[in-house]
Structures are given as structure tokens and as C-alpha cells.
Write a structure and sequence with these properties.
Distance between the termini: 26 Å
Largest sheet: 6 strands, mixed
Oligomer: single chain
Radius of gyration: 19 Å
Order of helices and strands: EEHEEHHEEHEEHHEHEHHHH
Helix content: 40-55%
Length: 260
């Protein structure tokens, strides 16, 4: 996969690192980047790539937002198309059947915060800054921010951040539950990779089923959510990984899961 603004590295252990690379604009999301992300998520080999790490190029910014110069003169129809394009790409990222981790290394604003929220887990540099400052530009979050942010941090806090357009530091993002952990800049990527390595020790299908349960429960009531969990729990018992994993446990041995 060859892209103008995306860099992708797949390591031998199955950990993939996707870097958004437009450092001159602090990795701001333009239409090309969004289309490339959409294509990447559609084509990613999730058998070879067991965990995907998403980060931004450079030391200053993860993703500083959407490209304002591109949006400034859009009309209503063009705004709708741009928002739908971003939302669809982020939905594909969210729906990948493998775990995704955002390594937030700097500014994480607007569309940057929205793409980070589409990942399963967010680790941040102590220098990172977060916010949904769109109302200060005369718009609202357009890439699913009003949907995902309240689910992560609660409606009251989400409304405060969106209505005020304020930018918060990484320690505040940790306090309100927007990120999972905060590290010094030089410790961020090693911590993210260590987490990815811990994840890939486990049964790939079980991890994927767990992700499916959690993501689909976003929009289900309790009865539906518990039924889905029962269904996917039962499906685990059709896998070789379950047979081998439990047999190894009873023998007090370790096993290597094959994703079968």
C-alpha cells in the first residue's frame, strides 16, 4: 500500500504502525488523507497485522484537526460530503477486527481527537493537548465527535469541552477518561508497543470477539448486549485456540495461539 500521507510498517511480530505524515500542516486531515485512511482500513490484512498502532509524524502533533484551508469555502452540500467521508473512514477504523491503539504524541484537536476516539485505546504523551474546538470556528464536530465523546467521558463533560472549545492537557484528559495513560514523550511509543505485545500473546479470535461485543454494545440495550456476548462466548468453543489454550492451562504449560 503506497500513500502520499500515510506511512505503514508491519513488524515481524504482527504489530503494525500507521503514521499520518503531513508535518508541515501538523498532520491536519485533508480529503486525501481521509480517502487514504479509508482505503487503508478497507485493504488491511488483519490476519498478518494483529494490533494496529496509529500515530502522527513529528514531535508536535498527532493530528491537529481537519484542514481549515480546505473547509473554509465549502457550501452545505460540500460540508455534508466532507463530514460523511470522515465519519465513514473513522467508522472503518473503529470496526477493524483487531485492537487499535492511538499513540497521541502532540496536538490532538478536532478531527484528531475524533480519530483517536475511533481507536480502542489511547495512550498520550505528557505534551499532548486535546479538544474539540470546532464551535470557535463556527462549526460543530463533524467526524462523529458528538457521538463518541459523550460515550467516553459522559454527556456533561463532553458538552463542557464542545461548548467551550477549550483545549486540555494530557493529565486532564487522563482524569476525565479520554485517555488510558500518559507517558513522557520518549516513553510513549515503548509503552504502546509493550501493550501491543501483551495483547498479541492472547487468542486473536477471542480478542476480536471481545472487541465486537464492546463496540456493538454501544447501541444495544442490556438484553441484546448480553445475548450477543453469549453468542460470541459460545463461538469461542468452536476454535482451536480455545481447545489448545485450556488444555495447556490444565497441563500448566504455555501455548502459542494460531488464530484458528
Amino acid at each position: 500500500m503506497d500513500y502520499q500521507y500515510l506511512k505503514y510498517e508491519l513488524r515481524d511480530n504482527g504489530i503494525g504502525i500507521l503514521t499520518i505524515s503531513a508535518p508541515k500542516s501538523l498532520n491536519a486531515l485533508n480529503s486525501t488523507i481521509i480517502c487514504e485512511l479509508d482505503d487503508f482500513c478497507s485493504r488491511l490484512d488483519t490476519t498478518a497485522n494483529r494490533v494496529l498502532i496509529l500515530t502522527g509524524d513529528g514531535e508536535k502533533s498527532f493530528v491537529a484537526g481537519a484542514d481549515i484551508s480546505e473547509m473554509a469555502n465549502k457550501n452545505e452540500a460540500e460540508g455534508l460530503a466532507f463530514g460523511q467521508k470522515g465519519a465513514e473512514a473513522f467508522r472503518k477504523l473503529e470496526d477493524l477486527p483487531i485492537p487499535t491503539i492511538a499513540a497521541v504524541n502532540g496536538f490532538c484537536l478536532g478531527g484528531g481527537c475524533e480519530i483517536a476516539m475511533a481507536c480502542d485505546i489511547r495512550y498520550a504523551s505528557s505534551k499532548a493537548k486535546f479538544g474539540q474546538p470546532e464551535v470557535g470556528l463556527g462549526i460543530i464536530p463533524g467526524f462523529s465527535g458528538t457521538y463518541r465523546l459523550p460515550k467516553l467521558i459522559g454527556q456533561g463533560m463532553a458538552k463542557e469541552l464542545i461548548y467551550s472549545a477549550k483545549v486540555i492537557r494530557a493529565d486532564e484528559a487522563l482524569r476525565i477518561g479520554l485517555v488510558n495513560a500518559v507517558y513522557e514523550p520518549e516513553e510513549l511509543m515503548p509503552a504502546v508497543i509493550a501493550l501491543a505485545e501483551q495483547i498479541i500473546k492472547n487468542a486473536p479470535l477471542a480478542v476480536s470477539y471481545a472487541k465486537e461485543c464492546i463496540n456493538r454494545n454501544y447501541d444495544m440495550d442490556r438484553t441484546e448486549g448480553l445475548a450477543l456476548e453469549n453468542q460470541l462466548f459460545a463461538r469461542c468453543f468452536t476454535t482451536e485456540d480455545q481447545k489448545n489454550g485450556m488444555a495447556a492451562f490444565l497441563r500448566k504449560e504455555k501455548t502459542t495461539f494460531q488464530g484458528k
